[in-house]
Request: fold
Amino acid sequence: MTAPASLSRLRRAAPASANDLRAWPLIRTLVGFDTTSRDSNLALIEWVQDYLAEHGVESHLTFDDGARKANLFATLAARDGETLKGGVVLSGHTDVVPVDGQPWDTPPFEATAIDDRIHGRGTADMKGFIATALAFVPEWCSQPLTRPVHFALSYDEEVGCIGVRRLIADVAARGLSPTGCIIGEPTGMELVIAHKGKHSFRCRVRGHEAHSSLTPHGVNAVQIACEIVTYLTGIARGFRDEGRFDGAYDVPFTTVHTGVIHGGTALNIVPRDCWFDFEVRHLPFDDPQDILDEVKAYAERFLPEMHAVDPHTGIEFEQLSRSPGMDVDHDNAIVAIAKCCSGSTTTGKVSYSTEAGLFHDASMPAVICGPGDIAQAHQPNEWISLEQLGHCETFMQRLTHELVTPR
Ligand SMILES: [Zn+2]
Reply:
């Protein structure tokens, strides 16, 4: 994202070295845990739990089915003891994407300060934010907060926003009703108030094998799959050329994309099986279910011909993931709070999906605002600038002011 002039309000002199950052020891600790999504995040979660406990803050954990991974939710009470109503949730995912096969110049699970940057997996996405927020726990515990502040740390965000669903269900079941949620995904500390929804699907075509000299005796799964993929491409073109648009997004229309296709075994065999995965990243006013219904209706036209050769042939669609989009009203209280803290007068919308949509769906309006650039996320030599972390620290200082001011 490009930084508009409004960001200058957040600027202060960039920290001269990592040691000038309040969060530096925490960044080193958090980056030091290898929390690649496929592995356990418990070591990190237990460390944070102990850290909070040292400040008298109790954590609430929710686990995955195998109890290998956990979400952590913790509340710093307001001075009147209020923990349930109001307040701000600071939220981040603890998992990171793999470093396998990536050329790293520094140890990926070690925060390394070089010049005006800190390198390490998760520095931008999004342990820099989590560390900066946690670094304010001692201060918030000693301040007369008029509203509670909550921490929400999730697992398995990078593999489909899986873990946070349990955290949100638990928070709702315990009767918490925070004012809203700030998700610290890297936005360059710009305020993002909307993102697209993302639905992904798998289509399986079951054909009928035959010698390739006898194609009429077979049902070619690859060719039928390609017809459906081509139809999806047509739908995508329709959105691009004639769809409804929202110019506030970097990609201002709903997109449809096929990313993986597998089919066939040898050229001289009419292929029996082919499957492909496609995704829809949609604007709030487009419904991915309509797109799925349309493509299913198109696929059905192949069935009579397929069944005439073999009644066991068919086409199946399966939903792989579902992440809702979100679009917060400009006048929502959490937008006002985030504007105050970031100094932002403008807001943006993004095409990637985050956990914000799930909070939003659970009546916890969410905005996205965090240090670093999404372009550095998932890359080898992932880094975050000291300047961005300095902005994030300023954001938290202003949040302190917000939290102690009666409203
Ligand atoms: Zn992230």
The longest helix spans residues 221-242. The two ends are 33 Å apart (CA to CA).
